[in-house]
Amino acid sequence: MGRVVLVTGVSRDLGLRFAREIATDPSVDRVIGVDIVPPRGDTAGVDFIRADIRNPVIAKVIVKEEVDTVVHMSVIATPGGVGGRVTMKELNVIGTMQLLAACQRAPGLQHLVVKSTTTVYGASNRDPAMFTEEMDPKRTPSSGYSRDAYEVEGYVRGFARRRPDVRVAMLRAANIIGPDVQSPITHYFKLPVLPTVLGFDPRLQFLHVDDLMAVLRFATLSDSAVGTVNVAGDGVIMLSQAARRLGRTSLPLPSFAVGGLGSVLRRGGLADFSPEQVGFLTFGRGVDTTRMRAEWAFEPQHTTASAFADFVGSLPPGIRAPGHLASADHVLAGLTDQLSGGDARG
User: Which domain holds residue 123?
Assistant: First the structure.
């Protein structure tokens, strides 16, 4: 009998794409996709069950469907699509707690895979050149997505101690990039002008979306995939290099002004700037991937540079429709007017 895999977060593109891909593997009998709203895309090969992982009913789903493998992909990076920060934290943290409680009570569960993020390391002027998996952030995250991911990882480690019979794999993925990826960093790179933090040129590290799918598949099906592993394309690029490859003009601003711009862009629906995003665009972040290669024997097909090049090559001429470009230019012009008028005084 083959695997029965439950994938959370299938209403979002990455979750649904992975559910569809793992369903094609001959060692998998069934794939069950779970979310609070139905997926928008093709669900061929995936049995969708409408369920909220914050509700204990998820335990009944796992037992009734005889799930032996859970892939948790529903930790949300931005609050905009779920109605605000409070709901985002409930879905991320409370949802994970309930899901893990359900997994703990499921005697047939054998494998748990959790997609985490390198955002747990934060971004500060005290960071090492490369974070290894044993390192903690120099400043414990206090809010937002990074705080949620930090708490989620703590609950996953607790589950692993309570259920040593379950193979647990946790992937700390670098910023995902590639054609059709919708995320805060891809929205940022689609702006007609790139706001940057004056005096800083951060190192950026990316993971191509195809490599994310490949490493998730490996972690789901391979018994050798155990523990917490950094996953990223080889190498880094500087933000200034990224701007040149995009053919973009940079707009250097003081850090407080970049935060103000983020608020303006959020209200305009053009990009979602969080404190984590501003920190990343100030100090950058690099992670060591030795464990990924040595212990998991996984090698991404794309480097950071080639992943970014594929993203750039997928963008249509002009990046956005003329109306969208005009609205973005209007927002940036409005911010410039505010700054020149003294609204951004320190």
Answer: 3-175+206-233
